[in-house]
UniProtKB/TrEMBL annotation, chain A:
PANTHER family in the record: SEPTIN
Family annotation (SUPFAM superfamilies): P-loop containing nucleoside triphosphate hydrolases
Record domain Septin-type G: where: 36-302
Protein name as it appears in the record: Septin
PROSITE patterns in UniProt: G_SEPTIN
Chain coiled-coil ranges: 340-403
Listed GO MF terms: GTP binding
Keywords carried by this UniProt record: Coiled coil, GTP-binding, Nucleotide-binding
Similarity field: Belongs to the TRAFAC class TrmE-Era-EngA-EngB-Septin-like GTPase superfamily. Septin GTPase family.
UniProtKB/TrEMBL annotation, chain B:
Protein's recorded name: Septin-type G domain-containing protein
Gene Ontology, cellular component aspect: cytoskeleton
SUPFAM superfamilies recorded: P-loop containing nucleoside triphosphate hydrolases (SSF52540)
Comp. bias intervals (Polar residues): 312-322
Gene source species: Meleagris gallopavo
Cellular localisation: Cytoplasm, Cytoskeleton
Length: 437, 335
């Protein structure tokens, strides 16, 4: 890590003639941090039953409550839990994120995607906060993942394809520390071989795992040694066994006791040393200055921001925002126009349908009217016919009555004839009436 | 059902857990110290006051070295500049392994003209320029690992020891500047005032500052917790510090001390009974240096940034009645 402010670049060095007192500066800074507390976020990836929860419990010497999970999850999920640990005057806000159901599915193609999405989501949240106009970034609770503990199954052979794929997709986003879980199932010689094989595989696949920093004299020696011990073979345990006159964390087998904190038995102590005591600060810094910056750069470029516009002049902040805003408003207007057009279209269509229906009804109505008219005419005719009949009958009736009221001088023969004529006339009338109805 | 891409809020806090044994978390403090010592610190201080009030001497006494060249060297003609000019000098000083890049900005010509209207403008412009520079670096896509910090962390304002009240120039200046930078007022050349006169002068100044709602460092609004408040209250009672500057050593009671030798005695700069220089030094360097930087970064710089980014946020006269939409990168989400 290049000494970020090489302070002597071209500046005069002054010698002090007395004690000024700014050597308390690191202490002032530390005091501030103590007040604020530290945030540390660990992501634990490993198959179900590989010992993730036990490892975390052992690392932090406490018991986080979790339940044993099943093997039947349909997809990989992430479970995040937040704890606050106190040790002397340091407050550590620890977040442990574990995978649930990793490696359990029959089809593992999408196994690593939820993990990548989660890490990106944390970066995104931080970026959004940073881009806000009114922001409160100094008391923002940092949820970005600082370290990823990847637990490899102790097969003794080589990395699984799933491991390769997952680590390849994560190595540019997070600091990966590969571990061999449940290492008490491998013998010492097998372990050395296994570790060598793993390292060669990682290197040949171009996977960048986290290297402990070796540029600071204080820790460079121990870090270099530790770098050679990667991946750490760890055993975790929350049970204590009495050995000699001490209670130690260990796993008891019929053939012996595996002590977690014994360096001859496993690398647990090395992991704890490296992770917490020596390099926690560096992990946090690498996450912020390397992984987060990379994410930010890609994301801003994706969003269309540029440092230098096509004319090769540095783009000013205002212009960038203005251009973006203008583009956005244009887009907004275009979409509004589009929606409006669609709406108008739909209205037109509906109107056409309704109009057609209206026309049909109109035609039907007219047809009915026509029929009604016809019926009316027919009835008119019939009525007229009937009226004529009635008139005729009345006339005949009048005639008959007239005949009856004439004086009776007519001869009997004519009387008979009269009677016959009347009979005949009445008969005809009757016939006519009954026929005319 | 938890979703794999994260919840917008953090998962519920599972409470404080007891540790069954030593874990080693406190080692992170040591790591932090080592890291900061390697990186070094930056501190930018500005001194403002009329010429002849002892600004350069004061800075030299504070940092126990020839940081500024005094304007009144014998054999050098003193020229009063026609306008306020700002001169910055940067040095690297080291003490017990801690490296500090110190920048002192001097303002010759301030308050020296006949018409001093707007003599604070070049100063305000300079301070804002530093904020602008930092802002530009911060919003680049490919940013530097460590953004060079040239923002003014503290502005020491020298009040002439009249013994009466604050002059209109003092009030105007402090009022404008306390909004954008941490202002630490001091009574210069305090050896012309007796202790009682000093006390009275201070009371009057404090009343004046309160009457004009000028909040000088340490500002009351930024006290974080009751301990801080207690500590800062004690400091606030003594503001402004009555200081005397000296860069020559004399012999007093067998010891070599920094002081001013006069016919009637030697004024020891570092003697709390003589002047309040030790308090100023403690405030600026030994206890509140980091706090000065933090307030500059978290408060003053942020409000500059808000102002600046809002400058281009004029609502566009569009068909959506000037309502700002939600921009993709969320920077309007707070409008």
């Amino acid at each position: 890590m290049a000494g970020a402010g090489q302070p002597n670049d071209g500046l005069r060095s002054l010698s002090l003639s007395g004690h000024v007192g700014f050597d308390t500066l690191p202490d002032q800074l530390v005091n501030k941090s103590i007040k604020q507390g530290f945030c540390f976020n660990i992501l634990c990836i490993g198959e179900t039953g590989s010992g993730k929860s036990t490892l975390i419990n052992s690392l932090f010497n406490t018991s986080f409550d979790d339940s044993v999970s099943t093997h039947f999850h349909p997809n990989v999920r992430l479970k995040a839990q937040r704890y606050e640990l106190h040790e002397s005057n340091v407050r550590l806000k620890l977040t442990v994120v574990s995978t649930v159901g990793f490696g359990d599915q029959i089809n593992k193609e999408d196994s690593y995607q939820p993990i990548v999405d989660y890490i990106d989501a944390q970066f995104e949240a931080y970026l959004q906060e940073e881009l806000k106009i009114k922001r409160s970034i100094f008391n923002y609770h940092d949820t970005r993942i600082h370290v990823c503990l990847y637990i490899i199954s102790p097969t003794g052979h080589s990395l699984k394809t799933l491991d390769l794929l997952t680590m390849k997709s994560l190595d540019s986003k997070v600091n990966i520390i590969p571990l061999i879980g449940k290492a008490d199932s491998i013998s010492k010689t097998e372990l050395q071989q296994f570790k060598r094989k793993l390292i060669t595989e990682l290197v040949s696949n171009g996977i960048q795992i986290y290297q402990f920093p070796t540029d600071d004299e204080v820790v460079s020696q121990i870090n270099t040694i530790m770098n050679g011990h990667l991946p750490f073979a760890v055993v975790g345990s929350t049970e204590v066994v009495k050995i000699g006159n001490k209670m130690v964390k260990a796993r008891q087998y019929p053939w012996g006791i595996v002590q977690v904190e014994n360096e001859n038995h496993c690398d647990f102590v090395k992991l704890r040393e490296m992770l917490i005591c020596t390099n926690m600060e560096d992990l946090i810094e690498q996450t912020h200055t390397r992984h987060y910056e990379l994410y930010r750069r890609c994301r801003l470029q994706e969003m269309g921001f540029r440092d230098i516009d096509p004319e090769n002049k540095p783009v000013s902040l205002q212009e960038a925002y203005e251009a973006k805003r203008r583009k956005f408003y244009l887009e907004l207007q275009r979409r509004e126009e589009e929606t409006r057009q669609k709406f108008v279209q739909r209205v037109k269509e509906k109107e056409a349908v309704l109009k057609e229906a209206e026309q049909r009804i109109q035609a039907k109505f007219e047809h009915l009217m026509l029929m009604h008219q016809e019926e009316k005419l027919k009835l008119e005719k019939k009525r007229k016919a009937l009226e004529e009949e009635i008139a005729l009958f009345n006339m005949k009736k009048a005639n008959a009555e007239l005949l009856q009221t004439q004086p009776m001088v007519s001869t009997p023969i004519s009387l008979k004839r009269e009677k016959d004529r009347k009979k005949y006339f009445l008969y005809n009338l009757h016939k006519g009436l009954t026929a005319g109805v | 059902m938890e979703s794999a891409a994260v919840p917008q809020e953090l998962p519920p806090d599972c409470g404080v857990h007891e540790l069954f044994g030593y874990v080693g978390i406190e080692a992170v403090l040591e790591q932090m110290k080592v890291k900061t010592m390697k990186m070094g610190f930056e501190f930018n201080i500005m001194v403002v006051g009329q010429s002849g009030l002892g600004k350069s001497t004061m800075v030299n006494t504070l940092f126990k070295s020839k940081v500024s060249r005094k304007a009144s060297q014998p054999g050098q003609e003193e020229r009063i500049p026609k306008t306020v000019q700002l001169q910055s000098v940067t040095h690297v000083i080291e003490e017990k392994g801690v490296k500090m890049k110190l920048t002192v900005t001097d303002t010759p010509g301030f308050g020296d003209q006949i018409n001093n209207e707007n003599c604070w403008d070049p100063i305000i412009k300079y301070i804002n320029e530093q904020y602008e520079r930092y802002l530009r670096e911060e919003i680049l896509i490919t940013r530097k690992r460590k953004i060079p910090d040239s923002r003014v962390h503290g502005c020491v304002y020298f009040i002439p020891p009249t013994g009466h009240w604050l002059r209109p120039l003092d009030l105007e200046f402090m009022r404008r500047l306390s909004k954008i930078v941490n202002v630490v007022p001091v009574i210069a050349k305090a050896d012309t005032l007796t202790l009682e006169e000093r006390e009275e002068f201070k009371q009057r100044i404090q009343r004046d500052l309160k009457a004009h709602a000028i909040s000088v460092y340490p500002q009351e609004d930024f006290d974080e917790d009751p301990d801080d408040r207690l500590l800062n209250d004690r400091i606030r009672e003594k503001i402004p510090f009555a200081v005397v500057g000296a860069d020559q050593e004399h012999q007093v009671n067998g010891k070599r001390v920094l002081g001013r030798k006069t016919k009637w005695g030697i004024i020891e700069v570092e003697n709390p009974a003589h002047c309040e220089f030790p308090m100023l030094r403690d405030l600026l360097i030994r206890s509140h240096l980091q706090d000065l930087k933090d307030i500059t970064h978290n408060v003053h710089y942020e409000s500059y940034r808000v102002r600046r980014l809002n400058e281009s946020n004029r609502p566009a006269p569009s068909s959506n009645n000037g309502l700002p939409g939600r921009d993709e990168d969320g920077d309007e989400s707070n409008l």
